[in-house]
Amino acid sequence: MTARWRYVLMLSVLLLTAGVTQFLTRASDRERVPAHAALVEFPAQLDFWRQVDAQTLGAGQLRELRADDYLSRTYANDRGALAYLFIAYYASQRHRQTIHSPQNCMPGSGWTMSGHRLHRLGNAALNEYLIEKDGARMLAFYWYHGRGRAVASEYWARWRTIEDAALRGRTDGALIRVVVPMAKGDDADVVARAAGLDFVQRVLPSLSSFIPD
Fold first, then answer.
1. For site-directed labelling of 15, which of 21, 39, 88, 202 has its Cα 20 to 30 A away?
2. How big is the CA angle at 144 (ends 180 and 37), to the nearest 5 degrees?
């Protein structure tokens, strides 16, 4: 791609982003979000995964997140594997109140991200990354969930948000992230991946009560 076409592409993306922001700001005045349960009621038991801890975000983190509801818990299965579940729900993705991408948040917290994989579980698509910090290694899975879709791509999720704002009067949605610690060993990634995907499969059926379709 020549320098001229790169400039044209960059300019187009900037103009599209500006238009999207203005559109979502106007659309937020007409939100029609179906009734749904609060995330505090999310199941503490998901088959053989059970909640073992819950975390509360600080005031500064909440201001940065700007979510309408959130959940931060640790689950463990009967084999001792851990899964950290985080959900940030937005009733309306207004200007400066949109879903935060892990592509920005994790590196901003000192984590490096590598080894991207894409997984499909039924109709759901999710990202997988190896994240590392201070010698700790984990697998992070995340996707954008809302209005009946589970989408891996941030850009596709934004496009669908624009479409649903126009056609359905809704921009509600959530970021869902599952992080699984990796033990040491040659097959550590295989074990962590199996545990993470298994946990995600237990989470998905419960989401519609809390993040409306």
1. 88
2. 90
